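request received
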Amino acid sequence: MRKKVIYEIKSLYRDNFRVTGYEFGEGEESVCIVGNTRGNEIQQIYVCSQIVNRFKRLEEEGKIREGHKILVIPSINPYSVNIQKRFWPTDNTDINRMFPGYHLGETTQRIAAGVFENIKNYKYGMQFTSFYMPGKFTPHVRMMKTGFEDVELAKKFGMPYIILRNTRPYDTTTLNYNWQIWETNAFSIYTTATNVIDKASANMAIRSVLTFLNKEDIVDYHSHDGYISEVVDDRDMISVRTKKAGIFEGIVNVGDEVIKGQPLANIIAPYEGHIVETLEAPEDSIVFFAHDEPITYANTAVYKLIQREK
Amino acid sequence: MIKTIASVSLPVDEVLEIKKHRIIPAGGVTGKEKRISVVTGIHGDELEGQYVCYEMIRRINEQKDNLTGIVDIYPAMNPLGIDSITRGIPAFDLDMNRLFPGNKDGDMTEYMAAYIIKDVLGSDAVIDIHASNIYLTEIPQIRINELHRDWLVPIAKKTNVDFIWVHGASTVLESTFAYSLNSRNTPTLVVEMGVGMRITKKYGDQLVEGLFNLMREMGIWKGKTKEPRKPIISENPDDVTYLNAAKSGVFVPNVKHWERLKKGDHIGSIIDPLKGVVLDKIVSPVDGILFTIRDYPIVSEGSLVGRLLREEVVRASEIVNEQISKNDREQVNENTRDYMDGQKGEF
Ligand SMILES: [Zn+2]
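response:
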């Protein structure tokens, strides 16, 4: 294991801003794994830390195959984590909206450029990331439909789902999108949690990454193969939206199977306590995403469901 | 008439409403009137447009008989942001100007964006007033996507701004308010002026003069207006030089905003108050005019401290404008004094 500083900026009063990477093996740039870009993505750092730990052992045991270099960057944004702010401390910009970056640009553009230059030539790119809405996910691999995406390859993770995301204008500045444009096979990996540690889904993610690398002959790792992934287009997902705002009382959890008409959640009048709305499953389906905050706004997609195959 | 254009209940005992003030001619409407919409507050920390909205309404009400069209004033597109000194939409941490055209079936933020577009769509001109951000001060300017240059530059010239900046197209910008309207045949100008969290009354008054001039040209206003100043127009990315901080520190300017600089002039220093030393001396890399200057002192490596418009562009605009002025002077004998005042920008 070689620890190295990928990118560094001097600060006026804080310790230097550093992006730290861990390299394993030697040879072609095979795999790059990236953790958090935002300050609340703690689970994402945790998963990477556990992966670093595993690779350290695999390397000592000679189980990283010759000719492959692996780079793990647990955090692209320690500054935001340390002050518990989601985006960049001074100007509130999102590093994951700055790729491929610009060396002569503003601070976060420089960080993106400085990191991307070091990771753009890897064959496989994996990023642990989060959704902009608060909630829990069924673990999955997400790929953007850029025309470069390779669904068969994504199945090698053995995650329960592969979600194909139809790109929107603002997606073009994410790491995942730019990796794909630079011909890296890019995968975004979502575990259940973001700002809390969820060990079960973290372990599933670690096993998935190692399973993938074993199937691609990069590491020697043996475990069960995981799931036969179901591929879902994000447009086919069923969003269950609140009509009313209020206190959110969830009844079902991610991964639950629900039948048509089954209550999913109640919205409670915040002062008077009665139920103002009960959300029901519109189809027989599986809960893929569930809101997990105590309040909800109106028109909010508090559940995303995947229809069960008939 | 004050009207709510979008409304949504918040979780606890509060309704979020986006409102507009519509002013119509004293004698009522026939349905053939032109409509101008003045919009601001999409970014909650940009307040320069607040004064412009107030001043527009005040002046119209003072001479209501001169109003021959419809004026819609939308002072607060992001009321929660304005109230909480937040640029984006609080709680969602989203830039409202990346949500358009919105979606009526989408979440609360997309839903509001959709109703905003629905209400503003079809205006004969829309002015979306921004105030840079809290870090940078900008000279009154209009920014135009190059895709809409031919259509919008002639309108922008009527608004009494100092500078028209035609910039490159980018997919990220497709989700802005202005792009959404411009791509739906509703001409929308983005004004950037002043600095976030502050009101620069001088700039507000300058823009108000320009908006009345535009209204007059559109047939919305028959009162007397002043000839707009001739803006410098930049269409080439090479016209603009960016000055980014080479070091993290505290920026102390040595020049004034909108100052003509020579190559090598000392623009400012980045200092280290702990060590008591200058970390970097920023000098002008070209001859030009400083149309953007940093207002917020703390900088990180890369932070923008200023933008310069190259001297050749400024000169070229002046030569063209002198020529135009000469032609105009020969045609217009009356009101020469007013007109010359306009040229100097002294209202
Ligand atoms: Zn703005």
